[in-house]
Design a protein that fits this description.
Elements lengths: L2 H26 L5 H13 L1 H12 L40
Helix pairs in contact: 1-2, 1-3, 2-3
Length: about 100
């Protein structure tokens, strides 16, 4: 066998392995609905390298679940010009408006 043939087989094997892996990830995902899973699997195999990359990026599950609530107090640091109580403070002049 020529070296070019071996390299082409290695590339083809890598692409098929990547597609199979991403297909498995998409099908096992719990937060994607069935029609979207079917579309992504078709997309993976129609556009092998790019399809697998895009489908993997889309189908990754979030690492943390958001609580869905906002904190009661915003902590904006020690900046005297930023905050809930400093809405009338002039950033450039360093004084309150209306003084």
């Amino acid at each position: 066998m020529e070296i070019v043939t071996i390299i082409l087989f290695a590339i083809a094997f890598t692409v098929v392995l990547a597609n199979a892996t991403v297909t498995y990830i998409v099908l096992k995902s719990t937060w994607i609905e069935r029609p979207q899973k079917i579309f992504q699997c078709i997309f993976i195999w129609v556009l092998p390298a790019m399809g697998a990359g895009v489908a993997y990026a889309i189908s990754r599950e979030p690492k943390t679940n958001a609580s869905g609530t906002y904190p009661t107090e915003l902590s904006l640091g020690e900046d005297p010009y930023v905050g809930n109580d400093n809405g009338a403070r002039d950033y450039f002049l360093g004084s309150d408006h209306g003084e």
